[in-house]
Amino acid sequence: MRLAPYLRLLRENPAFTRLYAAQLISFAGDWFATVALLGLSLELTGSAGLAALVLVLQTGAFAAASPVAGALADRFDRRTLMVAVDVARVPVALSFLLARDPGTLWIAFAATALLSIGAAVFEPTSSAALPNLVEPEQLPEANVLLGSAWGTMLAVGAALGGVVAATLGRDAAFVVDAASFAVSAALIVGITRPLQQPRRRADRGRLGLATLGDSVGPAIAFARRSRLVASLLLSKTTFGVGTGVILMLAVFGHDVFDAGDAGIGVLFAARGLGALVGPFLARALVGTEDRGLLVGIGSSLLVVTVSYALFPLAPAIWLAAVFVFVAHLGGGAQWMLSTYGLQRTTPDEIRGRVFSLDYGLVTLTIAFSTLLAGFLADTLEPRLAVWAMVALIGVAGAGWLWFSRPARATR
Questions:
Q1: Which domains does the chain have, with CATH numbers?
Q2: How far apart are alpha carbons 351 and 345 in whole angstroms?
Q3: Distance CA 65, CA 216 (A)
Q4: The whole model's pTM is what?
Q5: What is the pLDDT of residues 298-331, one digit of tens each?
């Protein structure tokens, strides 16, 4: 795995480097807050179902806002949009400090939903902008770096977040989250390269009911014309079907292994480390051709399913962390592969809406999956709850392999 192309990209393209650094910093803050919120919810309520609400609100609010976000990303200046969203999220993140007891926990839940609405605008806009920041031949490396940014900061942010919450207190984690958005905004302000291609005057800054009603339609119509595009769009959603299993990392780290917030941080850090390494491995192993992307996604499904099937058998947290790491090698790989494929095949004028549909589908699926996982965690023994979610991943994966077979066969 050669690092020279990635280092060259960061050195020679300051606009991309700023976007990459902004993503790293804001992701780190997110995971500081998520670990602290999960620990706070479990401590104040003792219910895995209510702790699941943190993850459900993150994904559900994201999904609900996605149609509007796609229209915004394609019709407004993308740099201005991302900066405005980051600035707005600073006071929202600070409102976590007001959640002190079961009676005020709703404030944290409301803030979680608002932050996710901001992310629903920021993330697809960033993905849609990326092909305009780098040369076409650099797009694979840029995708690997941005795809691994989430995993990098999950590994660092979750681990440090667990330590900070356990030593300095959860308030410190919430302040770090707020500061991360301010730093991200400052970095993006300095990007001078255009983040979108020139638009017709009629298409700029126009957002009304007719526009919102049309925001998803062009993306769906585009996907219906290509089994490859449809398969890439359904990739993340397929993984999302069983992603509620992530909730069980909090249950195992906090309760099964009796390690508190630090235990949650360890397992989430292993998840992040896998998501960090996975895109680099996928880029080296499967290349950038269409068939290779689909084969890589299918292989990733198998890795995730087998690893999480073994996870509940781990006798100690360190071995459980190994299984989580391997599972998210697959998770990180499929995210990068599907994102790169969509960036390469989608015209710039609808790319924001395509990515909003992509992220909206997966986050909606994750929300329902997490609700189910919370119910199972409260009614079944933890190992059985994990295996039930793994069964869902297996069934959904088999369906995706069947659906994508024509695209794999013709390329």
A1: 13-409 (1.20.1250.20)
A2: 9
A3: 12
A4: 0.73
A5: 999 999 999 999 999 998 898 999 999 999 999 8
